[in-house]
Amino acid sequence: MRNDHVFRIMVVDDDPDDQELFSAAIDSCEISAEFDIAGNGQEALHLLKNTSYDGIFLDINMPVMNGYEFLKKIKQDESLKNTPPVFVFSTATHDGQFEKFRSLGAEKLISKPSSFKALQEIVQEICRRYFGKKG
Asked: Which of 133, 129, 110 is nearest to 22 (CA)?
């Protein structure tokens, strides 16, 4: 990937603190990125229909439309078949949950870490793998 590419990333989370933490973690990847923030799946769906993204960081438990419902809507909408990689984060993950989200197109299901440093390491690995830049 070219070094001058500006990556367009959406963070979907209803918690303003988590929104800030994800934005800071992505900034630490040293990629050129523009962010859109959505507080729930419905807002994210609206943004996705009007903007092209390189990646989406998605919370599961949100009001209005949760992460699972968001992914289900994407899968059902032919116009969204080229959705970028979706990285699902949750405070609680259990066996079988990943397959449920994977069947709807999620790239990864990751348990939200308890520290910013751990979140930063996870996000940097995603940046390296999917956005071609060392963290």
From this structure: 110
Residues spanned by the domain of 105: 6-131
DSSP 53-104: -SEEEEES--SSS-HHHHHHHHHH-GGGTT---EEEEES---TTHHHHHHTT
Q: In the 8-state DSSP scheme, what is residue 118?
A: H
pLDDT tens digits along 11-66: 999 999 999 999 899 888 878 888 899 999 999 999 999 999 999 999 988 999 99
CA–CA distance from 57 to each of 36, 41, 81 (Å)?
A: 11, 11, 17
CB proximity list for 45: less than 8 A, separation 6 or greater: 65, 70, 73, 74
pTM of the model: 0.88
Examine residue 49 and state whether it is found in any structural domain, yes or no: yes
What is the CATH number for 41?
Answer: 3.40.50.2300
DSSP state letter for 113: P
**Residue 32's beta-bridge partner residues?**
6
The DSSP bridge partners found for residue 59 are 89
Asked if residue 1 belongs to a domain, the reply is no
